[in-house]
Design brief:
By secondary structure, this protein is an alpha+beta fold. It has one domain: 4-Layer Sandwich (Phosphatase 2c, domain 1), CATH 3.60.40. Helix content is about 35%, strand content about 25%. It contains nine helices and twelve strands. Strand 2 and strand 3 form a beta hairpin. The longest helix has 22 residues.
């Protein structure tokens, strides 16, 4: 399998005394795992929460075949560990964002909690794959704030979802089929909250991952460096393996479009080729037959009573 080209960078920024971000990765025969996390809860507890998230996710995915369910379990396990630590009086308020990219070539899976982000650069266009779990982002989605207002709102740093904040994790899952040369950017809000998307696009388009990661961190610091900044840049090989997977993805994801995944609602098998059907087929199961039969009996009983003298 061709090697992935990637780079990871993290920096405390210019205004924070300590770096509460964490990044990590692990390569595997099927591809690799990449994680960014942005801790919260104080200069000590935030650092611990982010580190626990990255370590736990990588440990859970080590040596196993990836799937949406396994990825979800990795974040759930991280949530349990951080939530347990947060019950100690000295760790009150501990939590962390986490955005994890699993490259299971030729597919990609993404799990996301908080306001760190995952972007996809494909054919010269940059797409934000994740939705921020923050107070201002939710108001923007509701149409109550404009994106410009959200950038300067006094509550722009209020997170509505983080690992460790609740006993149960609330995780967004996405999946898509890769295309040769795709580039992924994972970052904390120390980058996305400072640089415009068009700046991210220009850097990712014109520089390889290692140089792009360095330049993005440097630009965030040039623009004030108000927060810790962490960046992961991964470029997919030009030659991708042709392989099917035991897990299921929705048809749109199997064709290449990023799609949110809902466990238990995917098709029974992963489509590797998309063919236009010549005619629509209606599949009728035994439950459908039973319901139709009951409906016929009810209607017959009603009609019999109506026509009986």
């Amino acid at each position: 399998m061709p090697d992935l080209v990637f780079a990871l960078e993290t920096h405390p920024g210019l205004k924070r005394p300590k770096n509460e971000d964490a990044v990590g990765h692990a390569l595997a025969p099927w591809g690799g795992v990449f994680v960014v996390a942005d801790g919260m809860g104080g200069h000590r507890t935030g650092e611990v929460a982010a580190r626990l998230a990255v370590e736990t996710i990588l440990e859970h995915l080590k040596g196993v075949e990836p799937s949406p369910r396994v990825l979800l379990q990795a974040l759930e396990r991280a949530n349990e560990r951080i939530h347990q630590e947060a019950q100690r009086p000295e760790n009150r308020g501990m939590g962390t964002t986490a955005t994890c990219l699993v490259l299971d070539l030729p597919y990609a899976l993404i799990a996301h909690v908080g306001d760190s982000r995952a972007y996809l650069l494909r054919k010269g266009e940059l797409t934000l794959l994740t939705e921020d779990h923050s107070w201002v982002a939710e108001r923007v989605r509701q149409g109550l704030l404009s994106p410009e207002e959200a950038k300067t709102h006094r509550w722009r740093n209020v997170i509505t979802n983080a690992l460790g904040s609740f006993p149960q994790a609330r995780v967004d899952l996405l999946g898509l089929k890769l295309e040769p040369g795709d580039v992924f950017l994972l970052c904390t809000d120390g980058l996305s909250g400072v640089l415009e998307d068009r700046t991210l696009l220009e850097v990712l388009k014109h520089f390889p991952p290692e140089e792009a990661a360095r330049r993005l961190v440097a630009l965030a610091n040039e623009w004030g460096g108000p927060d810790n900044v962490s960046v992961v840049v991964v470029r997919v090989p030009e030659e991708l393996p042709r392989a099917s997977r035991p897990y299921a993805l929705p048809l749109e994801a199997a064709k290449g479009a990023p799609v949110r995944l809902k466990l238990g609602q995917e098709p029974e098998e992963l489509p590797t080729q998309v063919m236009e059907p010549k005619g629509r087929r209606i599949r009728v199961g035994w439950r459908d037959i039973l319901l139709i039969g009951l409906w016929v009996l009810v209607v017959a009983y009603i009609l019999l009573g109506y026509f009986r003298p």
